[in-house]
Structure formats: structure tokens, C-alpha cells
């Protein structure tokens, strides 16, 4: 499943020694006070909220200013740089760079940033050139042989958007450096700059394929540029250079298995795209509906799952580096509790209100057959995907605990098997169940991956299973009641989905009723997550 994710580090080489070799200094400086984990989480969540809301606005602009034909070709074209971005930049960088970076002293960190950024730029330049030259062959891998998407238009737009890979990779380096030192504000709000810049370009430029692609690149430039002042202010701005550094090998070794995992996930994404573009299975417009559902799902996943995990990841890495397993287990339990407490009601509400949720990107009700297909496909996929939100919240947290301990081989093995299984489930369920098959496949895969990761975690450091299980046994039934209440309220209202202005009141009333049921039940059960919010409101 995509998605929509919608969110991831020795001394200088001339001394030929590692940080561990140096021994403690005679008079260690006092440790800098740790930043508030709650404040970090709030910053990341606010940045993610801004990013996802502006992303929905960008999706609204794309859907209402461009034809389904152009939109679907664009969606397929940006798949290639997005695929390579996850393989080489955002996910792999955050999850491999930070644990290694945190083990070095200040001089080692500067050298590592300089060396690693130089290597990554060189690799991205090579891949960008190959992507432009091999665009026709790459598009043939993405689209079904009996495609409902314009192939020639997709090839043209793929070549246009390939430079985005370099822009997003440089932005990922900036994000990794800032996050490693727990500077989350600029990196968290950088995607907002991407969306605002691309929206402005889409609105101002001609409504043609080449200008649509240029708007995407302008957004990539903005996402990089807004992080540069913060890097300079904190003394983290690297000067990329092709120099050797012993820690680069550690990062690459960490990235290699994660890249393999991301590669398995991208095989899944490619297979999904081939399914959606197969005219024998789905009508034209289904792929556009899928990407709309992905944008909305990614917003919820990024805000309520990825943001808390991203904020706590440096703490996981620090606890692992210090071998403080008591703190590590406590962080694991609290992060799982937080993410599932937030994810469970969102899952239930999206299942109950999916047609109204997908309507927030429609400035008018569907008018043509293609627009109707796009709307119904988006609602169906969003509803089925929402089943997987809680299982994948667990997977997201648990995977980060393995990366923090530099146990990437175990995480990679479980992830790769999970994604292969998901491909098999798609192949088995989607042709017979249609859109529902997407969500069921992802849910089953997420549950099995959670089980495997839990077993491996318990063997290594002892999993807080009783606390997590007790929490889930309370929040999941509450979420079911919440979704049921929202569905009943929506059914009672004489408003049909399909148009943003009429759907927002339904979401406010039905969603508000569902959340009231959930929070009321949480208060009755005295869940600490809602009690903490109550204490803050009383101050």
C-alpha cells in the first residue's frame, strides 16, 4: 500500500579511530537539556497537519482544474521519482542516518554530513539521467498492457518530473540533519512550502502537461529552500563533497536493507498501479480515485501515526545507544498507546463516512461518467484502507524500534515478507472483491507483520505485551462504537455526498458525534491519554 505517506543516523577519517576508541574526556561538558518530547510531537503533528491539509488543497486543485486523462497520466508519471525517493532519500535516510549520526561527536557529525550528502547527490544525478532516458520502458512497467491511461502522455510527463528526485533527496538530507538534533519545526513545515508553491504554480501557469510538471518541480525547490536557513543557523549546513568517512559505510549498510524493504513495497505499488490501469478490471477514473483516497489516508496516517513516531525516534535511538532498555520499553509502550489511541477512532470514522470524506476534494458533484467512477472508487478504497490503520500504526512503531537498535536485518526480513504477502493477497482478492480487496489485503498483512515484529522484539529486550494488549482491548471497541454513532447520524441527515460544501456539515456533525462517544468512553475508562488532555485543559 501506498498512500499515501505518506514520514525518515568514528572520528574524522584522518585520525583513523572510532568514537568508542577515544574514551571519555577528562571533564565532560554538561549535557544539554533535552527538548520536550511532547513539544516535539506537537510541532511535528502541526507541521504534518499543515502539510496534509495543504496537500488536500493541492489535490483539490489537480482534480478540478485538469481532466481525468491528464490527471491519471500525471499520477503515473510522479510514481517513478516518488519510488526512487523512498528507496534512496526520505525513509531510508531517516531510519539509517539518525542512529549512526547520534553516536558521533560534533566533528564526526559534520564530516559525516559532508561525505554522505556528496555521495547521495552523485547517486541521484545518475538515477535522474537514467530515468529520463529509460522513461518509455519504466512507463511500460507501470501501466497494464490494456491500459486505461494515455501511455505517450505518461512518458512525456515522466521525463519532465524526474528532476524532482534530486530536489527531494537534498530536502531529505536537510530533514535528517535537523531531526537528528531534534530541530523539527523547519523540517516539519517544509512540505507545506512544497504544497503552497505547487498550488500557486498550478493556479497561475497554463493548464497543460508541461506546466503541470513544472509546478511540481517548483514545489520541490521550495521544500528544500525553506530548510536551508535553519541548517545554517544551527551550524548543520553541510558542504557536499566526495570524501571518505568511516561512518558512511555504517549508514549505507543500514540503508541497504531498508532500501530492499522499500523496494519490496514499491513492487507492491507498481503492481497496484498495473491493476488500477487494467481496463479489463477497472474503468477509466479508478486510478485517479485511488490517488485521491491515498492523499486523504496519508493525511490521517501522517498526522496521527507518523508524526508521533517521527518525534520520538531520536529518543529511541538515544536509549538504544545507551543500552537503556527499561527506557526503551517504556518509550515503545507509550508510543504505541499514543498512536493507537489516535488511530482507532480515525479508522472507524473514515469507514463510516468515507463518501463524505472523499467529497472534500470535489468543488462540484460528479458530472460525467469518469468523474462518477473517480468519486466512487475513491470512497470505496478509502473505506477499505481504513481497516488497516491500527495494524499499520503498530507496524510503524515497531519497525522504528528495530531501526533504532540497528537491527535492520530483522525488520527488513519481516517487511519484505509482509509486502510479498500483500502482493499475493492483492492478486487473490482484488479481482474477486474489487476495491474491498485492497483494504483487506493490507489489513491482513499488517496484522501478520505486527505479530512477527512483536515476537522478535520480545526475544531481544522484552515486549510490554500486557500493557499494549490491555490498551487495545479498550480503544478498539470504543472506536467501533464511535464509527457506529457517526454512521447513524450521517444516515439521519438528508444530505448526499459528492460536493465539499454539503459534505463538510455532515462530517462536522457525524464526526463530532462519533468523537464525543469515543472521548466519553475514554474518560469513563480513565484512559491516561485523554486524562492528560483533560488536565491541560483545566490549567
From TrEMBL:
It is a multi-pass membrane protein. Keywords: Cell membrane, Cell shape, Membrane, Peptidoglycan synthesis, Transmembrane, Transmembrane helix. It is found in: Cell membrane. It comes from the Bacteria. It holds the Pfam family MurJ. Its main location: membrane. Residues 1-34 are annotated as: Disordered. InterPro entries: Lipid_II_flippase_MurJ/MviN, MurJ. The chain crosses the membrane at residues 119-139, 159-180, 187-205, 293-313, 334-358, 378-399, 411-429, 435-457, 469-493, 499-525. PANTHER family: LIPID II FLIPPASE MURJ. This is Lipid II flippase MurJ.
Amino acid at each position: 500500500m501506498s498512500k499515501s505517506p505518506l514520514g525518515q543516523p568514528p572520528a574524522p577519517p584522518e585520525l583513523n579511530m572510532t568514537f568508542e576508541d577515544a574514551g571519555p574526556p577528562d571533564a565532560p561538558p554538561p549535557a544539554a537539556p533535552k527538548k520536550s518530547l511532547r513539544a516535539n510531537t506537537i510541532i511535528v503533528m502541526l507541521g504534518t497537519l499543515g502539510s496534509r491539509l495543504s496537500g488536500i488543497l493541492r489535490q483539490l486543485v489537480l482534480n478540478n482544474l485538469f481532466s481525468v486523462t491528464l490527471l491519471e497520466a500525471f499520477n503515473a508519471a510522479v510514481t517513478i521519482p516518488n519510488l526512487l525517493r523512498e528507496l534512496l532519500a526520505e525513509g531510508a535516510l531517516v531510519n539509517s542516518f539518525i542512529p549512526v549520526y547520534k553516536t558521533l561527536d560534533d566533528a564526526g557529525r559534520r564530516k559525516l554530513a559532508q561525505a554522505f550528502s556528496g555521495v547521495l547527490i552523485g547517486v541521484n544525478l545518475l538515477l535522474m539521467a537514467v530515468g529520463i532516458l529509460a522513461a518509455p520502458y519504466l512507463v511500460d512497467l507501470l501501466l497494464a498492457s490494456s491500459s486505461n491511461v494515455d501511455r505517450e502522455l505518461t512518458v512525456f510527463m515522466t521525463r519532465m518530473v524526474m528532476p524532482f528526485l534530486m530536489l527531494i533527496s537534498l530536502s531529505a538530507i536537510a530533514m535528517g540533519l535537523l531531526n537528528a538534533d531534534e530541530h523539527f519545526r523547519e523540517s516539519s513545515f517544509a512540505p507545506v512550502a512544497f504544497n503552497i508553491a505547487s498550488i500557486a504554480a498550478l493556479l497561475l501557469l497554463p493548464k497543460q502537461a508541461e506546466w503541470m510538471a513544472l509546478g511540481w518541480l517548483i514545489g520541490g525547490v521550495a521544500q528544500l529552500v525553506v530548510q536551508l536557513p535553519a541548517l545554517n543557523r544551527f551550524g548543520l549546513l553541510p558542504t557536499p563533497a566526495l570524501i571518505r568517512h568511516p561512518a558512511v559505510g555504517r549508514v549505507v549498510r543500514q540503508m541497504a536493507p531498508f532500501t530492499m524493504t522499500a523496494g519490496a513495497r514499491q513492487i507492491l505499488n507498481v503492481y497496484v498501479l498495473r491493476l488500477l490501469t487494467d481496463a479489463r478490471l477497472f474503468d477509466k477514473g479508478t486510478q485517479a480515485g485511488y490517488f485521491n483516497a491515498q492523499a486523504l489516508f496519508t493525511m490521517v496516517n501522517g498526522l496521527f501515526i507518523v508524526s508521533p513516531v517521527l518525534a520520538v525516534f531520536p529518543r529511541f535511538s538515544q536509549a538504544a545507544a545507551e543500552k537503556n532498555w527499561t527506557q526503551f520499553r517504556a518509550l515503545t509502550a507509550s508510543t504505541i498507546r499514543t498512536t493507537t489511541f489516535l488511530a482507532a477512532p480515525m479508522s472507524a470514522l473514515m469507514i463510516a463516512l468515507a463518501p463524505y470524506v472523499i467529497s472534500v476534494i470535489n468543488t462540484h458533484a460528479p458530472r460525467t461518467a469518469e468523474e462518477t467512477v473517480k468519486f466512487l472508487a475513491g470512497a470505496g478504497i478509502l473505506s477499505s484502507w481504513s481497516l488497516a490503520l491500527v495494524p499499520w500504526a503498530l507496524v510503524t512503531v515497531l519497525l522504528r524500534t528495530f531501526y533504532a537498535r540497528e537491527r535492520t536485518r530483522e525488520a527488513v526480513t519481516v517487511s519484505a515478507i509482509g509486502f510479498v504477502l500483500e502482493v499475493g493477497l492483492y492478486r487473490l482478492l482484488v479481482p474477486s472483491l474489487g476495491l474491498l480487496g485492497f483494504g483487506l489485503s493490507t489489513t491482513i498483512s499488517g496484522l501478520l507483520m505486527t505479530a512477527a515484529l512483536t515476537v522478535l522484539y520480545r526475544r531481544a529486550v522484552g515486549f510490554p505485551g500486557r500493557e499494549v494488549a490491555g490498551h487495545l482491548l479498550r480503544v478498539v471497541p470504543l472506536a467501533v462504537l464511535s464509527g457506529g454513532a457517526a454512521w447513524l447520524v450521517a444516515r439521519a441527515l438528508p444530505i448526499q455526498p459528492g460536493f465539499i460544501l454539503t459534505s463538510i456539515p455532515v462530517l462536522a456533525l457525524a464526526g463530532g458525534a462519533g468523537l464525543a462517544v469515543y472521548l466519553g468512553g475514554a474518560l469513563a475508562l480513565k484512559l491516561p491519554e485523554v486524562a492528560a488532555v483533560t488536565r491541560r485543559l483545566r490549567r
